[in-house]
Amino acid sequence: MTTMMWFRSDLRTIDNPALHAATSDTDGATIAVFTITPAQWRRHDDAPIKIDFILRNLRALSADLAKLNIALKILTVDDFAAVPGALLKLATEYKCNRLVFNRQYELNERLRDEATEDLFRDANISTEAFTDQCIFEPGDLRTGSGNYYRVFTPFKRSWCSTCEQQPDRTVPLPKPKKQQSMLSKPDPVPGTREDFAFVRTEQNHWPHGEQHAKKRLAGFLNQHAEIYNDKRDLPGDDETSRLSPYLTAGVISLRTCVHQARQANAGSLDKGSPGIVQWISELVWREFYKHILVGYPRVSMHRPFQLETERIRWNNNDDHFRAWCTGKTGYSIVDAAMRQLAETGWMHNRLRMITAMFLTKNLFLDWRLGEQFFMRHLIDGDLAANNGGWQWSASTGTDAAPYFRVFNPTSQSRKCDPQGEFIRRYIPELSHIEDGSIHEPHSRPPLHRSEIDYPSPIVDHATTRAKAIEAFKRIRS
Prior knowledge:
Elements: E1 2-7, H1 17-22, E2 29-36, H2 38-43, H3 48-66, E3 71-76, H4 83-93, E4 98-102, H5 107-122, E5 126-130, H6 152-165, H7 210-223, H8 228-231, H9 244-249, H10 254-264, H11 274-295, H12 318-326, H13 332-344, H14 349-362, H15 367-375, H16 383-394, H17 409-416, H18 421-426, H19 446-449, H20 461-476
Parallel strand pairs: 1-2, 1-4, 2-3, 4-5
């Protein structure tokens, strides 16, 4: 039997369900394929830094597959509509009997996969899909009334209890078997794409390859996980795992992360080390949002989870949006966060909440503008996590922040960056400002304000907070 392994957001050989299935037949052969779809990437607002990361990891994956006698073929087509036909042509060329892949849960991806399965079925080639991005296939965990969960806490409770009942769920798969011979030579992986031009610097260079991802996970669990609960909201400290780009591209599996965290926590998922338990909870959040994509597909179509919030009339202010995008709002923690995103392609999770709530509650701009901007700049841009986070902050989503809870960016700044170290790193024009004033530079005496080339706040927090709360009250009356 000859099997085609279709790689997508699972760019690794270790603990890969579809690859494991493809190589399980010792008498068979395997050919691997990845589809490059530039028009679709643009349609999905994928960031140049994300595409660069994918291509670098593809090159590493191709080398790892070659050691298993599996050649990685590269198909370049415009968009998802052209994918099924291109795959079938390749499968026919290599006389494949079977196509295997790991499921994706975004709506366009699911429609593409369904079209591929139909086409292969008509050609008498079997297809098999596997659960990989989640521990549980969306729909496996349901409420007592049989619905998809809408709230995270009961979802997590069900997730943990079912993992306890089915411990094999979190155990990684063994290494794939080396094939007897290689069917073809690997295709060269593009070094870059002009339509996704990206200038890599040392600061925003994220090392590629699953071996690096494994080392990063081990380093986090050994050195940082115990204090993660205490330090995770401090962007000036480097105490987070920074594994999100690797999880998004599938360079490391969610299952491997859960398994190793569980081992480091004496086998427990929800008791024991507060830091490890909290980090596992963050992994469950990623899965929760994948389930939401399937249970409530409207969130893949630019619609809010809370349908009544479609009645909100957001502001239309290009100047405010531009100031937010460029880190010139006059709120130092917001501006430092936005500049971190521009410089590194990544933003600390607490800062994602602060900047998102500032855009949607203080500037009262449509959350979809911020969601798109993040996707166009994030190396870890993931529809489920990004959409879920934005809708949480905008109070339009599942398990959302109550509309009357609006972060005060100045008090958040004092709490998350008390000495101003993070702010100084990304706003050099404030580097000489004393600790107490750096959180609101323009509260200093007029004489001292002239010492800095930094904008005044573009809105007043208290005034805009009251207006946002009133707008949400109106749609509920």
